[in-house]
Amino acid sequence: MLLRRLKDRVVQSEPDRIRCIATSATIGRGREDFPAVVRFANELFGERFEWLEDDEQRQDVVEAEREPETALGECWGSGSIELYAGLSAAIQEKRGLGELCQIAIEAGIPQTIVQDAQQQANQAVGAKQERRLLHLLLRGDGRVHRLRNLLKSPRELVTLPPEVFPEQPDDPEPLVQLIDLAVRAKHDADEAPLLPTRYHLFARALEGAFVCLNQDAHKQDEPFLFLSRQENCPHCKAQIFELAACPRCGSAYIVGRDQRDGAQRALRQSSTVGDDPKGKLAYFILTDQIQLPDEDEAVVAEQSMESMDEESVEPYTLCLGCGSLAHGKDASISCQCPAQFPHLTVYRVELKENESALSRCVACGARRTQHLSLIHI
């Protein structure tokens, strides 16, 4: 939208008046995707981009060319783990070119290469000296050559140490040090580093925390807390409940929808298909030790004690096998679950009429102006 507004302001949206250039290191997998890249550029800029395989005059995608390995020169051998650790420490401590060269010689880099590298590095200025020195020292390192070949396509970091450091395959630290040094290594400021590498970290937000309350049926090494949504416990087949907790006191709640089918009631996870996402959640605390509002809470909430409503807490009986509910402590539940799934007394916190989620922990009195930050983790 901003691009189109710019074109309208500058050239009144007249096509072919503005030259549009875009770069990306992630779009497409090669020449086979160039037609799709062209369509993307057409839609992005509202301008004409072309890619005809047989017509060089109508090819608007510039393909990257990998620098041939021969451009690095001959290998002098392979650096040692001590070399990378020593160079990394010296750079971090800013010891200077002389110290870096001494470390290189002691680690086995031929003295003639070190002397030539130092002479050329001295012709640079400031921090560029260090970068040029590293480039000249490491461009002949066999491990750098091997790593460049391995990284022609993306690789997981943990898969590389056995191939680059077979003598120490389970320790990623030497590989990380080598990559850091090779990324820092540049002959000139406007050139690409010796190893133009990027780390890509992929993080996924947790969907929530889910718990099996039938812990007595688990073996010692079987978990009962899960970070991915599932309906039934993979170990004992009991019902899985969504977990919440007070961030101040850690009191545990189970939360979900109180579903009714005639006389039958059951607690189901809040995102089950068919639930009303705008409906109220049902909160059940696992203890009957609750705290009533006090004067301190009234001050924080900027209310009088008379206006501070008390949350109503009612006992319920919950079947751990199917999630069936019955009002009252040790109440009878008409489910068909076998004896391996016991019944548990839980305490439902009745929400106020204007609330759709709990905003006060009944165990410690923690209160938020927004909904209580219970870990729907």
Q: What is the domain total for the residues?
A: 3
Mean pLDDT, as a whole number?
86
Strand proportion: 5-15%
Give the termini separation: 36 Å
Overall SS class? alpha+beta
Helix count from the secondary structure assignment: 10
By oligomeric state, this entry counts as single chain
Tell me the strand order in the biggest sheet: 4-5-8-7-9-6
Poorly predicted tracts of residues: 272-278, 369-377
Helical fraction equals 25-40%
Helix and strand sequence: HHHHHHHHHEEEEEEHEEE
**Global Rg:** 33 Å
Quantity of strands, as a count = 9
**Largest sheet descriptor:** 6 strands, antiparallel, barrel
Key terms:
377 residues; alpha+beta; 3 domains; six-stranded antiparallel barrel; 10 helices; 9 strands; 14% strand; elongated; disordered C terminus
Folded structure, characterized:
The protein has 377 residues and is of the alpha+beta class. It is 26% helix and 14% strand. It contains 10 helices and 9 strands. It has helices at residues 2-11, 34-45, 81-92, 97-106, 111-121, 127-138, 142-150, 161-164, 173-184, 295-300; strands at residues 209-212, 225-226, 240-245, 252-261, 264-268, 282-285, 312-319, 324-327, 343-350. Strands 4-5-8-7-9-6 form a 6-stranded antiparallel barrel. The radius of gyration is 33 Å and the shape is elongated.
